[in-house]
Amino acid sequence: MIVAIDGPAGSGKSTVARAMAAREGLTYLDTGAMYRAVTDAALTRGIDVADAQAVSELAHAIDIVLDNGADGPTVTVDGQDRTRAIRTPEVDANVSAVAAVPAVREAMVALQRKAAESADVVAEGRDIGTVVFPAAEVKVFLSADASARARRRAVQRHGGDTATDANATANAEEQAKIEAELIARDKADSTRETAPLKPAEDAVRIDSTDLTVDEVCDAISELIAGAR
Ligand code: C5P
């Protein structure tokens, strides 16, 4: 069983995919974490993210391990814990350039397919339903208004959670800045040549703007029940 969840930045994919993994006994696969890990490694080593050759050599050379521990998912690169390091604004700003390099994608897609060889997975990303697992039993394209996505991110940055506190508000200026960044990243991701962000033709579209996490998960559980 493969459940594919694609969608733009901040649409709630991670929250929903993790909840679905727990609900349905699936292995959570955060493919964005892999592109982030390559980006973080490039930045740490002083490799120019615009140098496609150097970045793709790096992507093939490093050992990225995603682990779903009891305390949440972790990311290690060559044995070093980079779980937090891959979520910095600097990585946010550079990851789309790295993810646009075809040879980087080749290496990451191979890792993603390997992870699904021996497990039932719920994978989140941009090209899961279109490229990585085109035969996935369940495909969801999860979206939300840009302002809702920015609000969730802004609240998260200060340790809040809009899933448990629906009325949580963010600093307006910070939210506007995050919204502009999300829109720029979505534009880069959806206009690149290789595996752009777009819904698979057979994906079910869910707009989470006015839905709770549980409501989104209920809809996906129904799709899984139908596919089983
Ligand atoms: O999902 P997340 O925001 O962590 O993804 C970070 C970046 O990784 C995306 O903006 C995109 O450039 C890239 N990505 C991708 N394909 C995927 C997952 C993520 O290109 N399947």
From TrEMBL:
According to the entry, every stretch annotated as the Cytidylate kinase domain falls at 3-224
Q: Name one GO cellular component term.
A: cytosol
Q: Where is this region: Disordered?
A: 153-173
* Enzyme class name: transferase
Q: Which UniProt keywords apply?
A: ATP-binding, Cytoplasm, Kinase, Nucleotide-binding, Transferase
> Known Gene3D superfamilies for this protein?
P-loop containing nucleotide triphosphate hydrolases
Q: Which biological processes are named by the entry's GO terms?
A: nucleobase-containing small molecule interconversion; pyrimidine nucleotide metabolic process
Report if keyword Cytoplasm is assigned. yes
Specify the signal sequence span.
Answer: none
Q: What segments bear the compositional bias annotation Low complexity?
A: 161-172
Catalysed reaction(s) here are:
dCMP + ATP = dCDP + ADP; CMP + ATP = CDP + ADP
Q: What is its EC number?
A: 2.7.4.25
Q: Which domain of life is it from?
A: Bacteria
Q: What GO MF terms are annotated? A: ATP binding; CMP kinase activity; dCMP kinase activity
User: Which amino acids does the record list as binding ATP?
Assistant: G7, P8, A9, G10, S11, G12, K13, S14, T15
Localization, UniProt: Cytoplasm
Q: Which InterPro entries match?
A: Cytidylate_kin, Cytidylate_kinase_dom, P-loop_NTPase
- NCBIfam families in the record: cmk
Q: Which family does it belong to?
A: Belongs to the cytidylate kinase family. Type 1 subfamily.
Under PANTHER family, the record lists:
CYTIDYLATE KINASE (PTHR21299:SF2), CYTIDYLATE KINASE/PANTOATE-BETA-ALANINE LIGASE (PTHR21299)
Which HAMAP family did the record assign?
A: Cytidyl_kinase_type1
Q: What is this protein called?
A: Cytidylate kinase
